[in-house]
Fold this sequence. Notes:
The chain has 481 residues and is mainly α. The chain folds into two domains: 12-178 and 183-248, no CATH class; 278-367 and 412-468, no CATH class. It has 21 helices and two strands. It has a two-stranded antiparallel ribbon. The protein starts with 17 loop residues before the first helix and ends in a 13-residue tail after the last helix. The structure holds iron/sulfur cluster (2 copies).
Amino acid sequence: MAARPAFARHDLLTWPLVGPFLRWRFSRRFLQAVLLAVSALILFDGFLGPQQSPKNLATVTVWIHYRGLVVLALLLVGNLFCMACPFMLPREAARWLGRRLGLQRNVPRPLRSKWPAVILLALFFYLFELYDLWASPWLTAWVIATYFLTALVIDLFFRGAAFCKYVCPLGQFNFMAALASPGEIRVREAAVCTTCRTKDCIAGNRQTGQRGCELWLFQPGKVGNMDCTFCLDCVYACPHDNIGLLARLPTQELWSDPRRAGIGRLGRRLDVTALLVVLIFGAYLNAFGMIKPVYALEQWLAARLHTTAEAPVLLLIFGVGLGVVPPLLLATAGWLSRLASGRRESVRETAQYFILSLVPLGFGMWLAHYAFHFLTGALTLIPVTQSFLNDIGLPAGEPLWQLGPIVPADWLFPLQAFFLYLGTFGSLVAAFQLAVSRYRTRQVALRAFLPWAALTLVMLVAALWIMFQPMEMRGTIFLGL
Length: 481
Ligand code: SF4
Ligand code: SF4
């Protein structure tokens, strides 16, 4: 690697300690190995440990800590989970084997889209509620094991980072949320790239054997965080040390919709729009699934459908929540926006363009929801770990089951509301900037922006209403909060 770059406050890769660590070529492997070891413990306890969810490492760490820490990292830096993803470590062996056996192929063109991930995400949200995954250590362990297996099989047969780019639901969540993050892997000086002959960031560095970006994100044309796993392969490959982890204004990449290397324009891709719909409106459904009114709604629907089974009732709720309400809301805002701008374009085009503005609010909703679980259950890790160690014969004392919350109960709603206001502010700014970058005059832009501002505020009210309801204390034993 080239000489250490000069310290720059806005570039994390130049910071003391953290910079040299991340620039060390094996830092990612190290982080992955740590999380792989943690995953092994989680799997062990999930399959063989106590099957009460608040007392098992699998349910507590996955549904409280993992989710809470992921959204925190996305809020403060960017896609750090993909950087340390444990699923990627065993797949290196599968890729090697696939190459040796001549099994590896390019992903067929019709499958090079977000549609597989869209289907898997919608299915996961549905199954999460149907089987109460948060309440079952055994099922949680199966979800993780299936994840490992799927990543292995896909990378055995397909070249590149097929699993990350087209399949992984967790990765798509991170890509979506990272659109609003304050950090981005990007070139330090564009002028250096124009004189660069080898383009190792994409082609790979022949001298060091470092591969280039497997997600097809060519640095000089890369815009923002979509599809970027923060793997740093491009950083290690670039012979000019011209790539950093740079700070930017949060949500900034949502202020326009330029052509992005390896992706195209987000607003022109129906699969990306579907992905954003599932992730933005899925945030509402996921939180709605744990408040009291959902039970009343389920009973009412069950009576109308003359059934006692939960599956068809939930299917109807998810079908309407993801397949009917979002298109209606987006089409209405798109139609009004087009009318206000007087521009000749289809409603679909307008809606696909402006849906980008709803990303910050969608992320704010996930943040508010996951923060609730994290803030009320973060310290449960201590007694659960004590209990786990005791179970495997390593005395760790009487588990301190009284531990759980890290903030007083009356801070919860104000904090959740703060995250929602933050998301709303980000969405309003993004919608206005998108309008300004699309229409010729500010007056037209303002008129086109108003329906999206109205939709954002309606969604804020819905989010506040959901968060205001008493929530199920999933994965904790502190029912008195
Ligand atoms: S990022 Fe590095 S390898 Fe890629 S084009 Fe620029 S200078 Fe060349
Ligand atoms: S641009 Fe590509 S190689 Fe660079 S960090 Fe992102 S995914 Fe990895």
